[in-house]
Predict the structure.
Amino acid sequence: MKRCYNFAAGPGTMPLEVLEQAQREFTDWQGRGLSLLEMPFTGDDFKGIMRRARTSLRRLLNIPERYHILFMAGGASAQFALVPLNLLGTAGRADYIETGHWSRRASGEAGRYCAVNVAASTSGRLPQRLRLDPGAAYCHFTSNETADGVQFHAFPACGDVPLVADMTSDFLTRPLEVEKFGLIYASAQKNIGPAGFTVVIVRDDLCDRALPATPTVFNYGRQQAAESLLNTPATFAVYLADLVFQWVIERGGLGAMAERSRTRSEQIYRIVDESDGFYRALAAPDCRSRVNICFTLAAELEPVFLAEAAAHGLINLKGHGALGGIRASLYNAMPDAGVSALAGFMQAFAAQHANAV
Ligand SMILES: *Cc1c(COP(=O)(O)O)cnc(C)c1O
């Protein structure tokens, strides 16, 4: 079997052990004589998987009792609309911190439902200060800008206004104080598993203020009451997520993931910084992402870099369409050997081409 090192931003690389277990169980799950794909979502077997996934996630993130875990359809982009629909209540306005591509998409969508107060707007760095609206229903930010390679290493403070985070690309890469947030969401295909659903962690008191026009299956309170089984969930995706959560627990949990994330990203940034300008990081040093490492090199060398990397089995390194350049996504499932292979390749490539620029 030949496996490449896949640096794609999403859907991203999955743990090989999880893929292999799913393969073993694919046609006959736990001796039941049918595939998980074929199981009713209302049956005890699937409900058991859902319960275990929720319990594992609660344990991993140390999620307090008064927070609910929802498994919802529609991806993070659906949450761009569902957050305002569910949380605005009578406030009619919300704060948005814009730090890159995805937070701008979130605030753009919210603008269809409410008055958006842009509390700050930056690119390649984080805001020094926020112009917050004390009457806002919530304050939204993106913990890790997947396209721009910008990450919050400390979270914004917004007083009593509930803090809402799109954590799609750095979910499960570090421990969190969940109590600091009103709501956290993350679509699955970056660091949880397969595309097709979104994890929403929401504080109990925020589950009862959905606007009347909110679709029932996207109503946080309704899904919470139904334990995310109001309609058919993405059953196979939830099953794989459950296996991924187990995989993270077995490897030491989020403390271990954070340490790996720090050392591995430093390994690549060091090569960028020591390349004499051959590689240039997109983000300011104090907010560089430990998950999506974005950098540029001379434009004419980019296609050469991508082609040679692919020939070495290092694939999907092309930056986001809106920003260009190179992006190496180091999700939990990326093996250390993949990071070392990329580091070695980058050094050799710079040595070979430095004089040509
Ligand atoms: C990928 C991504 C999204 C979009 O996710 P979809 O599931 O495709 O809607 C939103 N926010 C962030 C931070 C992302 O990385």
User: Anything to note?
Assistant: Residues 10, 75-77, 102, 142, 146, 166, 168-169, 187, 190 surround pyridoxal-5'-phosphate (CB under 6 Å). The two ends are 38 Å apart (CA to CA).
